[in-house]
Amino acid sequence: MDLPTRVLVVDDDVTVADVVRRYLERAGHRVTLAENGEDALRRVAEDPPDLVVLDLMLPGIDGLEVCRRLRQRGAIPVIMLTALGEEENRIAGLQLGADDYVTKPFSPRELTLRVGSVLRRAHTRPAPLTPSLTDGDLRLDAVARKATRAGAELPLTTREFDLLEFFLTHPGEAFTREHLLERVWGWDFGDQSTVTVHVRRLREKIEKTPAKPTRITTVWGVGYRYDRTP
């Protein structure tokens, strides 16, 4: 039998944290709580969880800084909790590499579904159809989950790697943001701005001039298309 996944819930609202804990435990997860950023980082260092549910508005070290430090440690999936009017913070969190977000007030059941979706994507990926993909100076090793450009390794988050792999295996095809959410994120619902932010981050890492992309091009009225280097 598989061991239960370990989820760290970081929220200074004791009531919210307790409700989230109960729902996640009912879904079979093992849950640890942290009330602030310092406590969260200490717990991650001592016993890295499989996923972090992270409130952005924390006392002391705020959620954005916690997310940034988590990304320095590796690719632990992060789901942010944000207030309704915190669009700038939400976008900043996605730019730092958060995998998903849920807006307060939220449905604990929806959060539980999001946690399950992110964990499935992170831990049960299918075997790659093509172990190695190349495009000009860009090379992706799907088995080692490593991407390089001009020989230098790219610091891709889990979701950025998945998105790049999808684009490289479907060159010349235009995809809507909704389609990308379904195929790359594994969601049948969600905010499509998540895709926009991740495409922007990926462009910054693989394009010669991110403001004038030649690889991941925008198809107006549709979404995005990956164009191979001539």
From TrEMBL:
Post-translational modification 4-aspartylphosphate, affected residues: D55
Keyword field contains Transcription: yes
UniProt xrefs under SUPFAM superfamilies: CheY-like (SSF52172)
GO-annotated molecular function: phosphorelay response regulator activity; transcription cis-regulatory region binding
Organism the protein comes from: Actinokineospora spheciospongiae
Domain Response regulatory residue range list: 6-119
One cellular-component annotation, GO: protein-DNA complex
Lineage summary: Bacteria, Bacillati, Actinomycetota, Actinomycetes, Pseudonocardiales
Keywords (A to Z) from UniProt: DNA-binding, Phosphoprotein, Transcription, Transcription regulation, Two-component regulatory system
Name of the protein described by the UniProt record: Phosphate regulon transcriptional regulatory protein PhoB (SphR)
